[in-house]
Each structure stands twice: as structure tokens, then as C-alpha cells.
Amino acid sequence: MPVAIRKVRRVFPENRRGSNKGSMKFLIVGDGRYMSARATTGLIKRGHEIAEIWTTAPKSFERHPSFIKRLLLPADYDARTVIERHGIRVRNISGVKKRDLVALLDQCSPADALLCTGSHVIFPLELLDRFPDRAFNLHPAMLPDYRGPGPIESLVLHGKADEFGGITLHRLSEGIDEGEIVGQRRLPFSDYGTRLSWSLAFARASGELVENELDALLRGVGASVPQEPGSGSYIAAKDIELSVRQDWPFDRAVDHMRKAPLVQYRTFLTLNDGGKYIAIIGTPRSVAPPTGEPAVIGRWAVVVDLADRRVRFFRDNSVRRMLRRLRSHVDVAAFRWRLIAKPEPEN
């Protein structure tokens, strides 16, 4: 049964600034990564202002990407360049309790609207009430599927990254990721192949959603679509397993090691012996039936019992990390080529 589209007629005349009809002043909550930077510049390009940025990852705003990435990427994707160019204040809210966020809002520069661009902050309803019809979130999955934290990891580990890979701009509501959908872009993982390439695609799509669907909504010519109650799925943080455990069967460990490096910079093996973590890489090898003996940790590999076999995992090392860094530069160069082949529209 199709869902009716609810037109948003309110234009917020009290927030019009000069001739820029319908422009807003935004409070942004983000992590300082590519999506956060690109969404911020998208708002500015459309004539909106930034009151300030809240973050739980302040170091992301303190450093530029690597020199090569700075050469290849547009400035719109560099959070530090964005805040310096536009004189935006960044406020560190790590350690601030949920109940104190409303009081913190009273200390900030007044804002008309809220945009979350990659953060695990859960906003109290009292804070959302300060932004009636003007609180939004960018969620990296095709809602209503894969609500909750860590959708990127969940999509890849569940083998659903092509089916539900994408980004959704939606209204913030009391239910997590349950607000009305403003716009979406489908981004199948297989079109990009690595986490970095995918993240850059998310960033580009975020800018498009902010500059088009969100801006139109705020000016009274857009629409939002309610999510059907009970539809989709929710994946809790506790259900996202990113480390291999000794109680797993061998086949599950092989499948995890095939998928996890696509979305994690480092993958770990959790040992039963005190919960020690060891960084591992590559395809595990079966060497014998379980022996009941403790793990043997060498310089290049670790041999350990899993649920049904004794297995050799290769350890991560500096050479492999260097190769990953080189691969990241290749990914950025490929993204730059995509921008050249199909430029972002001028505003």
C-alpha cells in the first residue's frame, strides 16, 4: 500500500534573512568526517548559516587529511578547511550527559534548525522540541531498513550492502531513525568496493540531499514521507560483532575475515585468555582439529582453537598497514576521477 506524501507548507517566515527567503541558522552535530564536511558546505552554498558544530570527535576537526588526499579532494570534503574558511565554532560535547544537552543549547548561538551528520548522540525529546519540524539526520542506509548505530558495518557483514546501501535524510523523532523521510540516494557497495570509496560517495550524496531536498523542504516546496510503522529493521550495537571470537566455528571466521576488512581499518581476534585482542588479516587456515591447548602467538601468526578446528590467523603488520594507506590514496584518486567525469552541479 503506497504511503501518502505529506506536503510541508510551513515556510518559517520568522527565520527569513534579507532577500534569502527561507534561509536558516543550523546547529550541526557531526564527527568531522567527509559526510559532515560536505553536508555543512551544502547548507552554506544554499545560503544557510551555521551557528556552531557539536562533536564527540574534536580531533577530526583539528587535522587535515593526508597531504595526498588534500591534493586530490575538493576542500568541501575537509572538515578543518570548512570550519576555518567559514569561521565556524566547534564545541566538544564528549562527556556531556544526555540530560545536559538542553542546558548546553541555551549557551550556544541561537539556531533555527538541527542537522546530525554522523554521530551516535541520542537527543532528548526536549531538545528536539526546540526545533519543531526542523531537526534532521543523515543515516547511511536505505531506511526503513537498518535503523540503529553502525549501519555501514551491519550492511556489509550481513551481505546486504548492495540491497540497502545508500543514504537517507530524515526528520529526527522520538524513535531512533523512525522520522519521516525527506530524501534518499541508493549507493550499492559493489559500485565502490572499499569503505573509503563508499564513504566519499556517502559524502557526495549528503551534499546533494542537503542542497536539494532539505533546502526545498525548508522553503516550503518540498515534502517528507512517513515511514510505515513496523516496517524495516533495527540493528542494535550489541548485535554488531566486529571481532572474531574463539567460540565461533571455522566457516564463520572465514566469512567474517572476507567481509570485515571492507569496513574496518583493522580486524581483531578476541582470545579467551583475558579477552586479549590481536590484530589479524587475510584468510584463516585450518591446521588441525581442536587440541584444547592455549593460543600460540608468534610474530607473524597466531594459532588458536575455534569451536570446531585449530586455526592459523595471520597477524597484521606495518607493511600491510602501509599497503592499506597506499590503497586509500588510490581510492581517493578514483573518487576525484568520478568528480571530473561527472561534476557536482554548480549552485
TrEMBL record:
Pfam name, any one: Formyl_trans_N
Molecular function via GO: methionyl-tRNA formyltransferase activity
Residues in the signal sequence: none
InterPro entries: Formyl_transf_N, Formyl_transf_N_sf
Coiled coil segments of this chain: none
Lineage: Bacteria, Pseudomonadati, Pseudomonadota, Alphaproteobacteria, Hyphomicrobiales
Domain annotation Formyl transferase N-terminal: ranges: 71-188
UniProt superkingdom: Bacteria
Protein name: Formyl transferase N-terminal domain-containing protein
Gene3D superfamilies: Formyl transferase, N-terminal domain
